[in-house]
């Protein structure tokens, strides 16, 4: 019988706030966000996905992201 895998840590609101603070209208590399926030790559990618699905993230290719402009 296999032992259950530990559940992945779910990023908290503080983690989301740190990522949003690291973002702006200028595209930044996702690796820079990981280094700047100290979060794991999986946590950063999950939060970026949530922001993307909420329409708050713009992907620029070449691993670059920015916040969408609010008008």
UniProtKB/TrEMBL annotation:
Residues 4-61 form the DprA winged helix domain. InterPro entries: DprA_WH, WH-like_DNA-bd_sf. This is Rossmann fold nucleotide-binding protein DprA/Smf involved in DNA uptake. It comes from Sinorhizobium kostiense.
């Amino acid at each position: 019988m296999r032992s259950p895998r530990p559940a992945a840590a779910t990023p908290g609101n503080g983690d989301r706030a740190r990522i949003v603070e690291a973002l702006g209208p200028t595209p930044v590399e996702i690796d820079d966000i990981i280094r700047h926030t100290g979060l794991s790559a999986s946590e950063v990618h999950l939060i970026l996905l949530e922001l993307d699905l909420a329409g708050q993230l713009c992907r620029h290719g070449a691993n670059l992201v920015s916040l969408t402009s609010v008008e």
